[in-house]
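To illustrate this point, we now present one chain and its tokenised fold:
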Amino acid sequence: MINHVYPESIEESQNYLRMTLKNISSHQLPFNPVSYLLWYEYAMGRDEQLIREIETCIQKNTLLTPETISELVKNNLTDKQILLAEKKAKEFQKILIGITKHLSDSENTIDTQSSVLETCAMELSQATSMETISSITERIITETKSIADSSRILKKKLASTVSKIDTLNKALEGAKQTAKTDMLTGLMNRRGFDQAMTYILEDIKKTHAPMALMMLDIDHFKKINDTHGHLIGDNVLKLLGKLLRDHIKEKDIAARFGGEEFILALPKTEMDNAFLLAEKIRNSLQTMRWKLKDTGESIGQVTVSIGIAMYTENESVEALIKRADDALYHAKNTGRNKTVTESNIQI
């Protein structure tokens, strides 16, 4: 069971561990299981509500105390998972009870009808007049029709039950998809990205095709939130998400990596084409004019810094992300609003 909850590899879990310990330390929290659970889930990026609540606390400079951490874990992880599991279990239990009742009722009805037919058969063997035979025959026809009707009713009830099971199953699939989606931007979240990368890497290892990885970070995003509020910040994130979807191909994947950071995996793409795509995205964003609806006030130019790295054979996802991230931070440390490839970094 636990492997389905935390399916990441040893390398992935090591990366999450580093992020977890860094967050616990930076917020001066005790290194206990509650703190670890919260920040590990935050590092995985699969619970959108949890991420939003934590980021809201951080952006508002709210002190994250052990009591706050415990409350976040209780509301977003412990109780929510238990309630969801209990709800789905009860729904399936109700359906199964219904199936059992339908079958039991049908079995009792058919047993009664079969008993009547057996009696008719015995009476026929002893009948001596046409009137008696005709009467028994009518009873046989009536009971046979009744059996057919019972079968049709059972079939209809079972069809309805199957439909309910199908609806519940679709709801569960929807919940699974939601767990992999960033609800604000509609892109994949960190968990969805990690799963998608597993399949992409399997294909690349077979075909030996190139793959570029792009990391994007909105410049001075905290200033946008602090100056204009989180609703404006959310709108910026949404628009960048749409911009990324509009620019990538079907084979590519885009995800919100956390906060104002995004990531693109571009299979079958060489560095030159990845750089051209990055520049298209960057230029499209910086030429947009942002104004507040209520006042018409400009919020200024919104830009991104971008880092790009190319996948090397048998490399881990974490190592690839690290190189793209290094290129991204080189872009941010040398002026922002630019695209830097791993080969541009001066060692």
Observations:
- The mean pLDDT is 79.
- The chain has three domains: 2-64, 83-178, 190-344.
- The CA atoms of residues 279 and 339 lie 7 Å apart.
- Residues 2-64 form one domain.
